[in-house]
Amino acid sequence: MTRITVTVDGVAYEEEVEPRLLLVHFLRDRLGKVGTPIGCDTSNCGACTVLLDGRSAKSCAVLAVQADGGDVLTIEGLADGDTWHPMQRAFHEEHGLQCGYCTPGMIMAALDLLKDDPDPSEEAIRSGLEGNLCRCTGYTNIVRSVRRGARDMSGREVTP
Ligand code: FES
Ligand code: FES
């Protein structure tokens, strides 16, 4: 067992973990962060995406020990109390989800994308989210949601 110290959604944890434990299992099974789903376990679908030290990471492709000393943000850490994060609200208002399984990963990946490109074009969004799969194939509304989320986060109007 290895002792790790990691901050998750603003709370510091110190835990003993097996070296082979995946970060997604640590989040879900140890910390109860079940808002981060597992879609494939083979780093293909992106459902498990979180921000690790501010950048998106597929948490099924990261060992918990690799997050030692790190700062993890999951979908559960986005809202401010009862107030949704603008990107969460955008997905709701633009119907960017159907079954919702891919949604946490889509939102976290979108936030990572906006760090490099705060006003992404539709093409940039499709390219930036290509590692995230939606089995309900609602990509049009997902793209629209990200555009609206980007606008709401910056106070800009969406450009055509
Ligand atoms: S569960 Fe991690 S990429 Fe699918
Ligand atoms: S909304 Fe069902 S997988 Fe994307």
Automatic annotation (TrEMBL):
<dbReference type="InterPro" id="IPR036884">
    <property type="entry name" value="2Fe-2S-bd_dom_sf"/>
</dbReference>
<keyword id="KW-0001">2Fe-2S</keyword>
<keyword id="KW-0411">Iron-sulfur</keyword>
<dbReference type="InterPro" id="IPR051452">
    <property type="entry name" value="Diverse_Oxidoreductases"/>
</dbReference>
<protein>
    <submittedName>
        <fullName>Carbon-monoxide dehydrogenase small subunit</fullName>
        <ecNumber>1.2.7.4</ecNumber>
    </submittedName>
</protein>
<dbReference type="GO" id="GO:0043885">
    <property type="term" value="F:anaerobic carbon-monoxide dehydrogenase activity"/>
</dbReference>
<dbReference type="Pfam" id="PF01799">
    <property type="entry name" value="Fer2_2"/>
</dbReference>
<keyword id="KW-0408">Iron</keyword>
<dbReference type="InterPro" id="IPR002888">
    <property type="entry name" value="2Fe-2S-bd"/>
</dbReference>
<dbReference type="InterPro" id="IPR001041">
    <property type="entry name" value="2Fe-2S_ferredoxin-type"/>
</dbReference>
<comment type="pathway">
    <text>Alkaloid degradation; nicotine degradation.</text>
</comment>
<feature type="domain" description="2Fe-2S ferredoxin-type">
    <location>
        <begin position="2"/>
        <end position="78"/>
    </location>
</feature>
<keyword id="KW-0479">Metal-binding</keyword>
<dbReference type="GO" id="GO:0046872">
    <property type="term" value="F:metal ion binding"/>
</dbReference>
<dbReference type="Pfam" id="PF00111">
    <property type="entry name" value="Fer2"/>
</dbReference>
<dbReference type="InterPro" id="IPR036010">
    <property type="entry name" value="2Fe-2S_ferredoxin-like_sf"/>
</dbReference>
<dbReference type="GO" id="GO:0051537">
    <property type="term" value="F:2 iron, 2 sulfur cluster binding"/>
</dbReference>
<keyword id="KW-0560">Oxidoreductase</keyword>
<dbReference type="InterPro" id="IPR012675">
    <property type="entry name" value="Beta-grasp_dom_sf"/>
</dbReference>
